[in-house]
Fold this sequence. Notes:
Strand order of the largest sheet: 1-2-3-5-4-6-7-8-9
Number of helices: 11
Order of helices and strands: EEEEHEHEHEHHHHHEHEHH
Structural class: alpha/beta
CATH class of the domain at 2-141 and 220-283: Alpha Beta
Amino acid sequence: xxxxxxxxxxxxxxxxxxxxxxxxxxxxxxxxxxxxxxxxxxxxxxxxxxxxxxxxxxxxxxxxxxxxxxxxxxxxxxxxxxxxxxxxxxxxxxxxxxxxxxxxxxxxxxxxxxxxxxxxxxxxxxxxxxxxxxxxxxxxxxxxxxxxxxxxxxxxxxxxxxxxxxxxxxxxxxxxxxxxxxxxxxxxxxxxxxxxxxxxxxxxxxxxxxxxxxxxxxxxxxxxxxxxxxxxxxxxxxxxxxxxxxxxxxxxxxxxxxxxxxxxxxxxxxxxxxxxxxxxxxxxxxxxxxxx
Length: 292
């Protein structure tokens, strides 16, 4: 376990549901805030929020989901059950928790909160939820597996330096909101995730697989804890309408649009995201008790 001299964030190796992974954590009180990243991302996306939660005296963790960051590769077979088992193991280890998820992490958090029958999930915050997207890209993704396309793409002799250039440009345009500068450290984590054309094709293939596992979105949902649905108005990947529909599915939930944020509000506006998390903690009746 190591702690940077310049950070309150501790990095350690952990295992959940048989998946070895990397965990970033900060010490504090109250229910553990569990931060789940989006597709092709890593726990590093939450560093800004983690340091702010630490300053507020709140215990929090962020983990690399299976197959991303420094976590073990995903197994063969459907993807969703692997993410679900991993999330359930996190909750069992750290409960009571407040779940905060972005994109894929948002969808995983929604399903985990809906499965919770023991009251371990005290509150849920979703950032730019993806499964209720109905725009052209989402419809095309659910139409077929495109296996042949990804096989051909992965075998193309594209130089790694060109892949890196595309990744850098993609992060700046599609991950961040307009006007926000991409953090070089975060860009480095993206390059680690997609180092070459074969990796790019594999990421694309699994993204299609995940979308096809959810043809109807979330289906019926019953979540008993407080829910805050958040979306960046400048998201160039998932339209705001997707989160608006999630809000409509969950009576009593709150809905917030961040006017200048993109697909990853935790990168664009860590202060605002932290403020929203602390707010739902207060509204959920947290009295800063230590988790047992």
